[in-house]
Amino acid sequence: MSRASKVVALFPWGDVVEEFLDPIGLHLEDFVERMTGGWLFGYAAALKLAGHRPMIVCASERVDLVTQHRHAATETPIWVVPGTRASKDGSDAAYSFRRWRATPLAAFRKVLADAPCNVILAQEYEYTRFDLLAWLAWRMHLPFYATFQGGDRTLSWLEGIARKASLRACQGLIVASAAERERLSRAYPGIRLNVADIPNPIDADEWRATDRLQARTALGLPADAFIAINHGRIDIRRKGLDVLLQAWSALADDPQAKLVIVGSGQDRNAFAELVRESGFPNLLWLSDYTTDRAVMRRWLSAADAYVTTSRIEGMPVAPLEAMACGLPVLASDAQGLPDILAEGEASGGLLLPREAPEEIANGLMRLRDDAELRHRLGIAARRRVEQNFSLQAVGTALGAFLTGDRR
Fold it and tell me: Which of 14, 41, 295, 379 has a 20 to 30 A CA-CA distance from 233?
């Protein structure tokens, strides 16, 4: 490692890691041994490529002692400390206070000191733990940064008071969404924020399409059908999955069209009911959260188009995976998605309004009926990922921002 190499501690969202894992049916062992990608492991891989040493620090309600693991895919150290979830009873302010109290600051401090850590990076700044990490960074004389991954609301007035002080103590924010950067300037006009426009990274070498016909044969899909796909967390409101089903109703009677949805999450049961009520004969939902990237690449390789109808986003990685596999993307204008498709069709996709199922349906039918358009957009999508979202490009930008080296 060079003299400029830094140990960067990444703190993912959640009072305990089970808040993320439980809804998708995974455990701590899966997190360490099987999970890949996303902003967290993407950051780890990108920072390593740039010559830095990432470490992941989280709390778990299923451990009694501080434990160290090593992430299987990136070899990033993962430190897990005992933690608890705060009760949600009572007012939002009371809930905020209980979350602050539940933060295992002493264990976090020991892990950071033993590393020793040079930089702290939190997943979200509009989140209770951000305030405690800001205080901890100040006490340990460590630079402190945070990213935007979709959290754009302060929970309570109590957090609102603390948040302003925490943001003033923060050396910088990584915000790839232009809409969120505008919100920040309105929400905190008296604070001079150091904001960097750096996207989430993706391994463009790994996420590359295989032969389409072979993928369809292996998955038992028809060779000539128009196949649209969506994958990720089953969160009906945030991901706009109800809007997606409304839009697909326009294609539900087309025997040569198929919608494939891959994923699970906290709304699994409610979404199962929506799927049942829809009765669409050409809808396939694979209701498991897969950590097998080869399997997901096969599904993306088999598809003709990717569709995401989110209401709330940060800088989603799922559509980037599809674009890396050469798929045109039809996307809503939720935060982050207009930044991915900054030049519209020249970036590889069609950008449509949120909460607009008719327009989304028209976009899907346009892609269904125009193979040349799909081909052109797919080539542009792959090029967009290679040039702007690769591990190399993002790692260099991240490393420079987090270490203050802007040369």
Answer: 379
